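does this look right to u?? NAP version
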Amino acid sequence: MQSDMTMPLLAECASDLSKSLPRSQRDPVIGIIGSGDFSRSLAIRLVGCGFRVVVGSRQPSRVAKGVFPDRVEVRSQREAIHAAERVVFAAIHPEHYHSLVGLREMLAGKVLVDVSNATTLTSHKQSNAETLAELFPKSSVVKGFNVVSAWALQTGAHDGSRQVLICSNCSDSKAMVLELARRMGFSPVDLGSLCASRGIEEAPLILFPSWGGPILTTLILFIFFYGYIFLRHILLPYLDHRENNFYQLPLVTVNQTLPAVALVTLALVYLPGLVAAVFQLGRGTKYKRFPCWLDCWLCRRKQLGLLSFLCTALHAVYSMCLTLRKAAGYTLLNAAYHQVKAGIENSWVEQLVWRADLYLSCGILGFGVLTLLAITSLPSVGNALNWREFTFVQSGLGYAALALSTMHTLFFGWDFAFSPGAYPYYLPPAYLLALIPPCIVLVGRLFLAVPCLTLRLAKIRKGWESTQYWPVNNQEPGGSREAHPQQNFDDV
Ligand SMILES: Cc1cc2nc3c(=O)[nH]c(=O)nc-3n(C[C@H](O)[C@H](O)[C@H](O)COP(=O)(O)OP(=O)(O)OC[C@H]3O[C@@H](n4cnc5c(N)ncnc54)[C@H](O)[C@@H]3O)c2cc1C
Ligand SMILES: NC(=O)c1ccc[n+]([C@@H]2O[C@H](COP(=O)([O-])OP(=O)(O)OC[C@H]3O[C@@H](n4cnc5c(N)ncnc54)[C@H](OP(=O)(O)O)[C@@H]3O)[C@@H](O)[C@H]2O)c1
Ligand code: HEM
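got this back:
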């Protein structure tokens, strides 16, 4: 097969003949086999980007007028392959690839772009692109464009992701398709050789791959807290003394569950960093891999953080609506009536006023800081920050948000926690349970701030290692630490 790069993609340089043609006649000719949805969208996009397109159909006469733009020619498969200068898209389903075998010689030397998706997530099956490459050994097969939908192709990559994943065993052909994708307004990503094609084909089938664990964790926490609050506030009082609190199920119980879940999830964002620090301190090195569960946990902190933010935002909205409820109105009226009957003129309790203002203020501040974290997690904002700024917001302000949220909950319930009435049926309030993980994290963080631990951790994170990891030939008699060159980190 001749070198692909010697054959230009642009028709202007393709032949002297093309130079004599009018502008539109000199645009590069791209072939597309198949006249379905993807073919139509691809043709519209290519024509819009200045290419000439010839669509190859098994029965061109059956393709209704107006399906393709006027500038697109619909011909037989043979004619389309013949007209295409270099690039031919196979826009048919992979189970029909074998029907093109008769055109093998015509496709020899051309770049055959496989745009198909996998139908199931089967890791042991040969990819469609590899099958196509086996069927057409004289063509160079490039995998690509399958991750964009027909819709995204038509709307000119303004809707949905602009990323196009591309791979091929022929680097020249791949470079050509990468350039084509760029000219079409997409952001091509080179994923190497054709063995990456299976992953590319399966990519559109995977649903939020990094969100499964965090969503499941949040869901389990929600079910646990909702069930616990239902048992403690609604079911047991009803069974015990027929107290009917079922009206609380849609709003009050949800507004107790959501913040508890938010607080625990937020603690779960900052706990793995501490566990990682304990591992590093214990081992005296950062070069030993963390256990898989910790690695996975560290990689899911962004998702956990965003889910915590979602629960907090919902809690804030629910809380604003608490006083709008009919139940709140009736409770207030009843309390006022009893107060009048009891002859109480002033029900102002200074301590309660302070407590409510303090817990609300801490909650609002905590929510504000969390919003900042959520904004910086947007790629467009995060990319504008340098590493130090991002760490300051995510780690520094993140801990501030955790501390404010914990204070909000403590101010809300600290005096209830010490009254025996807060433990009906020996069950502590849900917010007390929710306070355990953030308190562990905050105390752990304070503990790690002890100078001897902080300094040792900083040294380890800069590359210092405890003597047990020194290479044997570097070991000093008696294992003296002072002799190790990395001890210079002490001076840093
Ligand atoms: C609303 C919200 C949005 C968030 N958005 C993002 C986001 O966009 N991106 C993001 O990354 N996090 C995000 N998070 C999660 C969290 O804020 C960050 O992960 C934060 O950096 C954690 O800080 P930390 O101090 O616990 O740990 P870090 O400062 O990350 O880590 C402490 C130390 O642990 C070690 N360590 C950490 N990870 C690894 C690892 N994988 N392998 C080996 N060592 C490791 C390092 O030595 C590091 O110095 C978000 C959280 C929230 C609440
Ligand atoms: N639709 C999307 O959004 C999208 C997104 C990414 C990737 N893809 C991939 O693009 C390819 C085409 O998808 P599509 O949605 O365009 O499908 P489609 O609408 O069903 O079109 C497929 C075309 O294949 C041709 N064809 C049908 N049966 C055939 C057979 N027995 N032998 C040979 N050719 C046959 C037909 O064209 P003729 O009758 O003119 O020959 C038909 O129009 C698939 O591999 C799909 O995975 C599609
Ligand atoms: C705009 C911000 C916030 C507002 C307006 C707000 C408001 C409230 C209100 C009114 C209550 C009392 C609810 C009741 O009487 O049942 C409450 C409780 C609580 N809040 Fe918030 N809050 C905010 C942010 C937060 C944040 C950021 C967290 C933690 C991530 C949080 C966690 C809690 C918890 C755990 C409770 C106790 C729930 C219970 O068991 O009743 N709040 N909040």
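The pocket of protoporphyrin IX containing FE (ligand 3) is lined by residues 255-256, 259-260, 262-263, 266, 312, 315-316, 319, 360, 363-364, 366-367, 405, 408-409, 412, 429-431, 434 (CB under 6 Å). idk if thats expected tbh
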